Structure formats: C-alpha cells, structure tokens
Amino acid sequence: MKFISPVKSKPPLWRRCFRTPGELRRMGVAGINARNGDFVLPLNPRALYRLVDDKLETKRLAEVEGIAFPKTYAVVGSSHETSKLEKMLEGVTSFVIKPTRGSGGKGVLVIDGREGRSYVKPSGALVSGDEIRHHVSNILAGLFSLGGQRDKALVEYRVRPTGGLTALSHQGAPDIRTVLLHGYPVMAMLRAATRESDGRANLHQGALGIGIDLETGVTTRAIYHGKPVERHPDSGVDLIGVQIPAWDEVLDISVTCHEMTGLGYLGVDVMIDETLGPLMIEVNARPGLAIQLANGVGLLKRLGPIVRQYETDPGATPAEKIAFSKAEFGRR
Amino acid sequence: MSSKWKLITAVMMLCLIGGGVAVYKVSSLGVPFWPGEQVYDWQVEARVTFFATGRRVKARLALPRANVTDRRGRESGSLGYHYNIETERGGQTAVWAAENRDGKQSLYYWVRFPGAGTSAADRVAAESAEPSSVGLGGAVGDAFVVIVDELRRVTTDPDALFVAVFQRINQESGSQEFTLVKRYYEEEFGDDAMLRMGIDMLESSGVRARKAYGVSLDEELGAQDPIPLIEYCDGAYWRVRDPRDPGAILDGAKLFVWHRGGGPLLDVTGGENSRVVFTVARERIPLHELTDLQGSPFLISTILGLPLSERAVFRYLVLIPLGAFVVVLMRNIIGVATLGTFMPVLLALALLEMPVAQGLVMFSILTAVGLWFRFMLSRLNLLVVPRVAACVVIVTLLMMMMTVVSYHLGLQDGVRITLFPMIILAWTIERMSIIWEEEGNWSALTQVGGSLVVAVLAYWFMGIPVVRYWSFYFPELLLVLLAGILMIGRYTGYRLSELIRFRNFTES
Question: How many other C-beta atoms can be found within 10 angstroms of the C-beta atom of residue B350?
C-alpha cells in the first residue's frame, strides 16, 4: 500500500486500530449497511425468507431439485413427541439436533456416538437422554429461533467429513459457505472449528475462515481472529493449498439453491461427507461479511462485475454463471 | 420513480410538513420555540385574617389597578361573604360583607399576571393638587423646617428630593435637628415612623407623596407581609419607589405593586387583629391556555385538549421515538451491539424515573443476580416460559428487597423504581444466558454493555430539556425525526465499528 513505507517499520497505533472509510472503499469491503441496503433488501423479497428460514422447507425444495442433503431422522414438533424421541432414535448412533428456524449455529447439538444409556458429544462429553429432551424442549419453545417464535427440532444425519478436511477442523465437520449474487458464485470459504471455538464454525468464536479459490477449489488463505494464519492453531496442519473435494459439485449445489429459492443474494452452506459427497446443510438469506476477510478480497470488488454481467445477460444458465465466476474471480 | 427519489420526496415532505407546522405555531400562534421563552404567570394570593366580634363584618382590601390584572384575571374566595368590587377613580377595592360573624375569619383574593413583569411600577398621571404642609409645633416643628430648607437648597427636583430624603432617613446618624425629628416620629407612629417622616418631608418640600404597598415576587419567601412603598408625584406622574432603596427604580419582575393611590390597604370593621399576608407562586402557563392555541385546528390543540392525566402519559409517549432514534443511530451508524433492539429504550425510560447511577447499579445487580439464578434454574431443566416466569418472580423479589434495603440505608430514591421493566429484564437475563452459553461470556458482556451505553445515551438525549420541550409542544417535529430515521435507513456506508472490525483487512 502506498502509505506504508518500504522500510518495515510498524505503522502508527491508530492505523493498526482503524481503517478509514476511504481505505475500505478502495478495497471494496462491504459493510453490513451496504449488504442489507444494496443487496439483501432489494434482492431478497420477504416472502422468500420462509423458504430458507425453515430448514424443513429448504429440504423439501432441495428434494424436488435433486440436491443431496443430510437425511432427516426425526422432526419433533410437540413436547408430547419429545418423550418418544429416544425411541425414534433407536439404532442411530450419531446425529445432529438443530432448530428448524435457528441461525448462526444456535441450538445445534451434535451427538457422535453412544456409551451405555448416554450420548457422546464430539468433545467426548457425555449427555443424558434427559438433557437431550430438555434441549429439544428449549428448541420447541423458540429459544433459538429468530424472534423467539415456537419452533420444531430437526434430528438429522451427522455428516462425516472426508479425510482431507477432517484434519482442518478440530472436532467438527468443516462447512463450505458460498455467497451468490443473482446465481453467480461470488466468494467461498471453508469454516473450520478450533479447540477454542469448541466444535462450532462461528468465526467470532475463534473458528477458522479459510478462503477458497473459486476456479479450482483450493484454499488460498486463512484467518484466525481476523488475522491471517497459515497453520491450524491446534494441530499445526497446513491450511493453505488444500483441495476441496468435489468442488464443481459444491458450486452446482450452491447455484441450484439460488434457482430453487429465488433469493438474489444468498449464502449456501455445504458439507462434504466421506461417502455421500457434498450435502447441502442450509441456505442463508443474510450471509455474513467475514468471508471477505477469509479471502482477502472486498465483496464489492466482485459484486460490481456480477451486477454488470447480470444486466447484460439476464438469462444466463447456471453453467454459464459458474463459468463466468471461475474465469473472472479465479486465481489462476 | 426509483426508491431513492421516493425516499427523497418522502423526507422532503415530512420535513416540510413537520417544520411548516412548527413554524406556523411559532410565528402565528406565538408558541415559544425555546423553552427559555416559556411563559409563566405570577399568582399572588392575598389572605386577609381577622377575628370577627360577632357583629356585622365588613372588610375592604385595596386591589391592584385594573390594567395590571386584566390580562390574566383574578378571583376571590370567601365562604359566606357577600363580595363585590368597588371602583373609584381607577383604584379598586374588594369588599366583603357578612352579618353575625364570630371567630377567626379568612378571606382570599388571587391575582394572576404575566411573569415577564408588570406595568405596576409604571407612572400614573397625577391630578393637580397642592402638597399639604405639615403642621408641627415647637422645637420639632422648627427642626423640621430647618431640615426641609436644607434639602430644598440642594435640589427641588422631585426625584432627587426623594432620594435625598430617604438616604438621610436610612442613615444611622444625622444632624441634631434630624435626630430630634426622628425621635418625635418614632414616638408618634412607631413602626411606620420612617415612612411618615419621609412623606411629610416630601410634602413639605413641595412634592406630593403617599404610601403604597408592594409584594416581593419571590416564591421562597412564603407568606410575606406587604412591603411599604412610597408613591410620589414628579410633577406630572405618580411614581413608586422603595424607600429602603431610594436610588433604584422598581423592577416590575421582582416587586409587584399591589396598592397605590394612598388610602389604607386593609380596612376591617367588626373585626380585630386584622392582617393581610401575601403568598406568591410562579406558575407555568399551560400553553393550551394561550387563547390562540385553543382555536387552532392543529395537532397541538388535540393533544393539549386532553385531560391532564392523559397529557402526562403523552409526556413519556413522545420520548419513546427519541429513544428509538438513538438506538437507530447507535446501531446503524456506530454499530453497537445491543441485547434486543429496543430494550435500551425501555431501560432509558426507567432511568428517567430515578438517578442514573442508581438505576445502572440497580440494573447491574438485578442482571447479575438474575443471571446467577438463571444458571441455577437451568439445572432443573425447566421449560422456557416457566423459566422466564420464575426469573420474573425472582427479579421482582430482588427489586423489593433492594427497595427496602435502600430505604433503610436512607436512599429515598430506591423507592421510585416501580417502573423498572421487569419482564424486559427477565427476558434480557434469559437471552444473555443463552448468548453466554452459545457465544461465550465475552459476547454476552459486550452486548449488555452495549445496551447500557445505548440506554444511557438515550436517557441523556431524552432528558435534554429543549428536546423534551420540543417533543411535547411541537410533536410535529417528530415527523422531521422520522425523516432522519428514514435517511439513516438508507445509509449504506460503513458503521464506525466496522472500521475497527476490518482493521486487519489486507488484500491478498
């Protein structure tokens, strides 16, 4: 950058604490207001939200489109059903319980196996059947849902990440978030848990954000607490240059999610299963901004060209859209 | 029309309507724009007391001149008395009359007049009449003549004479003649001596003078005796001055001249120990009483036309949008994370009811203990709604305990906390505990901290007197506020917090 002298002196304190709006604009960083005001609000009609806010609805759509997703074991809609939950789960050793209307990973309980009458979390902690029922009743009461409305609990297949990706994440399957505008892939990142984030993939809780090259599906850059890192803070595994398996399939699923929901601006979360391949986890109508940190690219730098492309060729097919994004944003 | 232009038109319209109505009210209806211009009234109450002796009673109280009181009116309170006002040559007298009265009697008379000062101290045209000479005999008479001659040698100007006479009277020591005359008057008239002496000297010097009575416009005084004043004729007009401060021209905003034109202030027949005391009170004029406003078709008259109790609710109601505005500002421009969008507004409203520091301490203690209790409850695996309800009970009990404790510690303000939004508090605790578990304690604490900061700012904003005044008397300005909120709603620039969040952003 211009104002940092070639001699490697430390920049002044205020410069390390702040970025001026001008700098951010030059780098094309999108703020929350810009994301909401310029993309989410105009492109995502309120009526479409229910398609993605309710995971059951999203799964129903995905089924029609032929997108693979984790198998649903059970849906608990009333406290009466809660008592039958354990019976329903007989024979299932690992599963995930989540609120159908949750967001940001809130209220997700992952069970990796059983030990006698208890259940085992990925961390090795034991959970009793009582605690599971209590968790489900919390979900039903709307504790984790948007706006606190009553909710249902979804019990589904626990994804087993492929070998290559398991190493990147500490006790938790990493997921791939792709942001799309008008169906064009904008940016993608891999979110991997650390010991600090306790199996969760939330960046502000200390999870890793790993930028992915849209063209090849190879990781390019990783951030930990907002700062670039090259190795996993727990295991020391190299985070850069890792190939995401079945990358083209991931992109296909993401673009199809745009087609099926009609949302103009969305984020699609995909996990890659050892045996089943890429599975669609959820669709988000308000994808976060950390993805630009992970990739080291301002979102606006990519959103602009896509808007122009969309205006010149509104009828592009999914394949054309993917080709455009790969050519335009690929690292080469 | 693009949404941008729609927004601009809407903002313009709102500003025009809101600002226009406000301007109309200021310029045409005379509603003061700044609270400093707040119009207030003085209310002076005269209380006449005496012991009736069982016969016919008649009390006469001299009243302020009619032109003083015409604007705001006056009234009298006197149970069982016949009451009328007697007018004589511009001077007015209230007359109460009753038969067969016994025991202590109280009669009241109220006067209201604008607080900006009255014309009471103004000059009044004097009818031509010669000053009477004072007939004092003997050594006192000689001494008196010497003094008057001495004064007249220095000046014959009435104003200067007045000042000279009373300066000499107020002096401790004087010439032999002066001391002699002073002693004579003190023996003759007692308390009234100085005034009578001054009046006599002025009259003898050719300046007509007489007694007048004033009331000090000082609320702190409580019940006060009438202040004796002197009215003297400067040749063409009657002027009133305070003999204790002869050089000063009366300030109509500090002293109200109740009675002028000579004559007794109070005259009671059929009663003993008669006395009149005055009490003054400054009263804000409710703007709805400004006659122009009542006829106005605008918003203001509809609000001010409500009964008082409803208007009191409005006082708080109009503050809520202001709090909401602060929240919008803090969230969308600054980027402060808060627990629940409008929880800070409710907290700020609660803070308005008590000292801020105390409110914050109260909030912190309630939240901390509530949170601890919430974690205890979570071991019982309760369902959500009963759990929050349990929290409400605990928070309420805690609050009662704190009230009792603070009362016993002598902190009276602890009692005034009933408005604290307990349900909101309980939900805050619930949400906080979830964030605590899901996102970590740091996240929970920053969000609570953010909420507190926003609440204090909102409290501060809602507490600014000008802002409160405008929001109540110019509710149409809320439309301008609305325009501001609409504009912030389309602000797509960076939030202040994002400048920090992206501080490590580097392009790869």
Answer: 22
Mean pLDDT of B338-349: 84
Mutate to test the interface with B, among A143, A221, A303 (most CBs of B within 10 A): A143
Could you give the 3-state DSSP secondary structure of residue B90?
A: coil
Ranges in chain A, pLDDT < 50: 1-2, 4-5
Contact A33 B491 (CB under 8 A): yes
Please report, as a single letter, which amino acid is at residue A103: S
Amino acid B235 reads G
Contacts of B3 in chain A (CB under 8 A): 42
A interface residues, B as partner, C-beta within 8 Å: 16-21, 24, 27, 29, 31-34, 36-38, 42, 79, 105-107, 130-131, 134, 137-138, 141-144, 202, 204-205, 211, 220-221, 226-228, 292-293, 295-298
User: What is the distance between the alpha carbons of residues A169 and A165, in angstroms, rounded to a whole number?
Assistant: 7
Q: Where does chain A hold its CATH 3.30.470.20 domain(s)?
A: 20-52+162-329
Smallest CA–CA separation between B312 and chain A, in Å? 33
Q: Tell me, what's the pLDDT at B134? A: 66
Residue B302 has pLDDT above 70, yes or no: no
pLDDT of B62: 86
pLDDT in tens, B364-374: 888 898 889 88
For residues B436-454, average pLDDT: 85
Could you tell me the CA-to-CA distances from A241 to A168, A269, B277 in Å, in that order?
12, 21, 96
Interface check for B491 against chain A (CB to CB < 8 A): the answer is yes
Identify the CA nearest to B17 among candidates B483, B485, B486.
Answer: B483
pTM of the model as a whole: 0.67
Mutate to test the interface with A, among B431, B505, B506 (most CBs of A within 10 A): B505
Q: What is the pLDDT of residue B415?
A: 52
From first CA to last CA, the distance across chain B in angstroms is 41
B chain contacts of residue A128, beta-carbon cutoff 8 Å: none
pLDDT of res. B284? 66
Report, as an integer, the average pLDDT of B275-280: 87
Fold (topology level) of A71-157: Dna Ligase; domain 1 (3.30.1490)
CB A111 within 8 A of CB A94: yes
Q: Are A195 and A234 in contact (CB under 8 A)?
A: yes
Q: Where in chain A is the domain with CATH 3.30.1490?
A: 71-157
Residues of B in contact with A221 (CB under 8 A): 508
Q: Chain B: nearest CA to A64, how far in angstroms?
A: 34
| Residue B460, helix vs strand vs coil | helix
* pLDDT given for residue B165 in this prediction: 83
- Would you call B502 and A130 a contact, using CB atoms and an 8 Å cutoff? no
Closest CA to B119 of B221, B15, B18, B250: B250
Residue of B nearest to A34 (CA): B492
Interface predicted TM-score (ipTM) of this complex, two decimals: 0.81
CATH, range A20-52+162-329: 3.30.470.20
Instruction: Determine whether the interchain pair B505/A29 forms a contact, defined as Cβ–Cβ distance below 8 Å.
Output: yes
Supply the pLDDT for residue A257: 95
Whether the CB of B506 is below 8 Å from some CB of chain A: the reply is yes
Calculate mean pLDDT across residues B214-234: 83
- The reported pLDDT for the residue numbered B91 is 75
